[in-house]
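Consider the following assembly input.
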Amino acid sequence: MIADIWTIVWKDWKESFAAQGSRRGGLMRLLILVFVFGVFLPLQSGRAWVESPVVLIYWMWVPGFLVTGLVADAIAGERERHTLETLLASRMPDRAILFGKVLAAVGYGLGLTVVSLFLGLVTVNVAYGRSELLLYPPLTVAGGIGLGLLTAGLAASAGVLVSLRAATVRQAAQTLSIATMLVLFVPILALQALQKALPGVSAIEFTAFLETMNWAWVLLGAMGALALIDGILLVAGMARFKRARLILD
Amino acid sequence: MAEMAIRTEALTRDFAGVRAVDSLSLEVPAGIVFGFLGPNGSGKTTTIRLLLGLLEPTRGRAAVLGFDSQTEAAQIRERCGALLEHPGLYERLSAEDNLEFYGRVWRLSPDERRARSRELLTHLGLWERRREAVGTWSRGMKQKLAVARTLLHRPSLIFLDEPTAGLDPVAAAALREDLYELVAREGVTVFLTTHNLAEAEKLCAQVGVIRQGRLLAVGSPNDLRARTGGPRAEVVGRGFSPAVLAELRARPEVANVEAQDGHLSLELRGPVDLAPLTRLLIASGAEIEEVRKGKASLEEVFLTLVEEDQ
């Protein structure tokens, strides 16, 4: 099973790095992504890139963003390019295909995020270090890796689930974009609604209250919630992955 | 009794009120090339999907290599190879990477993968271009690579769904030739769907004719010819008068006569000496250029079966 999953991961990575039939084109796309997230944005942010806990939002958002771009292609792309049926006609087990697709997307998103964050650290040290070694705080690193993994897992599981029933990559990408918007905006809107619902609490007081919260526990809570959602989506994906229903004519 | 590679019993599949495969009962012996002939939309591809367990039957059952297509589909896919409607190649990857991927899928060792890829690509004349992205290749080359992928893991049974469809005559003939050689060399059972009857005639030991999901006939091409018409004679010449045609039709050894544009087609009852018939034509004043004995082509058999069904 592990070897089968790795076979799918190997193929999906090969395909995504050989974008549009050209390995050089695929490599260029990767370099641009790493440059933007590893050099350009850290230079713009300065020392805050390393020191501010706000960087956690980056750890969360980037893997999801990178995975969403890749995962829409997972099953729908294979269907659109007429490679899915041949793969399904092989001995490859259902779960190996499903987990392989999820793992390929998570590995791609998380891998690029870690590389760009490491590069960001180097960039900030070179540009703003002033002979002092700047490092991400341990909580940021631990929380960031956990959150990054879980948001990448969330995007990958949701993406595969959507991709299972989408006839085209475009259809899958559109559905995923709507889902991503919901994930991004629902918590913000929920916080705003909560503040308005509390009688006699001003926006400033509410913000001050948020600042007093124990963020380590908030982080753990968020990771627990994400892990639960990831699990639910994976189980749903396993339930929906039926060979006989995957070939859409 | 020959071992059966495929056995179906009343296999039926409906799609939203349309019956794609209708009570198909079929036996395909192991070790032969079996041709599944039928016009477009007759249920050939659906039958392959049912046999590979990619679709569930509405009714009936199928056993492939002794495994049930519904409960043991994984075992079937483990032992089969399939070239389906589309080549199913990863066009961004090279030919080498495509075979590497499927070699891993079939759990071939790295040495086996390399040796087998080299052997098949060399045989198909693709070795020199193995590092090119498949998307830049011609359709004929892609189809050859798909054949290589299908045979990579030395399956006992392969399904080929219209392998020469969409190819130009030269590419189709080349692929047919390669297929013929490879299949003979590897000794696999082949389930070949096609609507190219010349292809079936060249490759198949047995054929089944399907129309609107129903099996109309099954047997060797010779059996089908015998079932749908006896031996024939073709006469090329001029001056075939209505009188001599009537005289020919009245003879006991002649089943039917058709004349068209200086071409006389005689359907005969059993092996017949053509000399008396030729003498009769000459005596009636006809000018004969050529007389040849023949048998109905598979195409004629196919058309007869379809017409009878209509």
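The first helix of chain B runs from residue 44 to 51. Ask yourself how this observation constrains the way the partners meet.
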